[in-house]
Amino acid sequence: MAELLQVEQIYKNFDTAKGSLSVIENVSFTQQEGELITIVGASGSGKTTLLRIIAGLESANQGVIRLQGKPIEEPGPERAMVFQQSALMPWLTVAQNVQFSLRSLGLSGETQAYRVQDAIARVGLKGFESFAPKQLSGGMQQRVGIARAIAVQPKLLLCDEPFASVDAMTRQTLQQDLQKVVLEGNTSALMVTHDIEEAIYLGSRVIVLSSRPARIMEIIHVDIPYPRDPLVRTRSDFQDLRERIWKMLQIQ
Amino acid sequence: MENAANSVIKHSITPAWVYSLLLLVGVLAIWQTLSSFKLINPLFLSSPQEIVIAGVDLLVSGELLVHLKLSAYIYAIGMVSGCLVGALLGMAMGWWRRFGDIVDPYVVFFSAMPRVALYPVFIMIMGVGDLSRILIVFIGVLFPMLFNAYVGAKQTSRQLIEVAQVFGYNRREIFYKVVFPSSMPYLMAGFRNGVTLGMILVVVSEFFGASGGLGQQIAVTAQFFQTPFMYAWVMYTSLLALGFVKITDWMERRLLWWS
């Protein structure tokens, strides 16, 4: 498998009234093609900032990020992002919101229409194409956000705590949807979460970040084959991992 | 229990407008009766019958159309230019934050100022012609439009802009595809303000030195105690304003279906 993403010695400081505040310190890792990596850390640990740097929405003070060897400088659809709040354009229908991500790709109208239909079907929203976002539940809105990102057929899907604001039942469904999308769509995903269980359940590797400044404490391999059934949570090795990460996050 | 529930449903079946209409008929009947028995001084308040007759007369003689055209001309030019300039300037202020911050205090000052106060100044400089009238409507409409557009552009969600950035939109595209539609409710609110304010300013500006127009006719008929005609003009002006408000409502429903 080829290397997709290289994150090399990233440092990030925020300038505050009290001086410079270090939020990310020396973070390096690589991601293989087709891999689903999760990043877990406490709230406010700088993990979202790290994802935003990879998305190109913020720049690092030091370090390089490469996607297939090319340094990242600005945002681009090959790194499509699923946001914490679904962040849909309220004035566009479901289909138009999904199509929103395709405009800058230079695709023909036919291809666009096909991709929109395909993405909507893959997140299970067939029949809701002409609905306004406000007519949908929070979980359905988040699905539109996912459909919008996968319609691009990105090399890397960036997910910023995408399921943090939906109820537990919906979260479980969405987690499986995401898993399916990554496995079937031959794409890769990098997901930030503060939910340890979610991180283990979805990630082939879990990057555990310390709290401000964010440093990598450990990168943990999860040896559970995909597709993962929700019941894997009850396995003893799953429980052991959960306890281990939980302790790591407590100690610091 | 069942009967109580049924009666609640039955009550809500009669639409409110039926009662509104009944109320109108009632008020008109009382008014007409009082006038017929000479209990109201006809110099100050004509009877409904007289007003209707005067109104029909204005319509049939073609006088209504003549003056309507004159007012509409002022209103249309003032409205369109005021809305456009206000919207563009306000959006620009919200988009280029630095520019907005610099101009902001002046916008607040002029928004607070009663715009009619400027009319004598315009008359002094440009005389009592159409230009002064168009300008007062323009200024009147400009500020509510500008202020709302400014707030609208400024409140655009940071996250929605980032969504567009992630999917490769450049600054210009972000403006057209995110900031502009996101400001639409605010632009509509400014427009709604402008529609009624512009109407008021047209009529008031025609009170002084106009050769025609709805406001001029109200002023002239009042001066000559042609009371039924004066009320007929006031009625037509009100109906026109009501029409504009209804059109604005309809536009809002079409454009803001999503909010």
Please, could you describe this protein's structure?
- The complex is a heterodimer of chains A (252) and B (259).
- Chain A has helices at 47-55, 94-100, 109-122, 138-151, 168-184, 196-202, 236-251, and strands spanning 3-16, 19-32, 36-40, 62-67, 70-71, 81-82, 156-160, 188-193, 205-209, 216-221.
- Chain A is of the alpha/beta class and 252 residues long.
- In chain A, a hairpin with a 2-residue loop joins strand 1 and strand 2 (19-32).
- With 259 residues, chain B is mostly helical.
- Chain B is 82% helix and 0% strand.
- Chain B has helices spanning 2-13, 16-36, 48-61, 63-95, 97-112, 119-126, 130-154, 158-166, 171-206, 214-223, 227-255.
- Chain B is globular, with a radius of gyration of 24 Å.
- The chains are: A alpha/beta (252), B mainly alpha (259).
- Chains A and B meet through loops of A and helix 8 and helix 9 of B.
Strand order of the largest sheet of chain A: 6-7-8-3-9-10
Inertia-based shape of chain B: globular
Strand-residue proportion of chain A: 25-35%
Query: Please, what is the average pLDDT of chain B?
Result: 91
Question: Mean pLDDT of chain A, rounded to whole units?
Answer: 90
Structural class of chain A: alpha/beta
Rg of Cα set of chain A: 18 Å
Overall helicity of chain B: over 70%
Please trace the helix and strand order of chain B, writing H or E for each element: HHHHHHHHHHH
Give the count of helical stretches of chain B.
11
Q: What is the molecular shape of chain A?
A: globular
Largest sheet of chain B: none
Straight-line N-to-C gap of chain A: 35 Å
User: What's the story with the biggest beta sheet of chain A?
Assistant: 6 strands, mixed
Largest interface: A-B, 26 and 20 residues
Q: What is the tally of beta strands of chain B?
A: 0
Uncertain regions spanning at least 5 consecutive residues of chain B = none
Helix segment count of chain A?
Answer: 7
Structural class of chain B: mainly alpha
Q: What is the N-to-C succession of helices and strands of chain A?
A: EEEHEEEHHHEHEHEEH
Distance between the termini of chain B: 39 Å
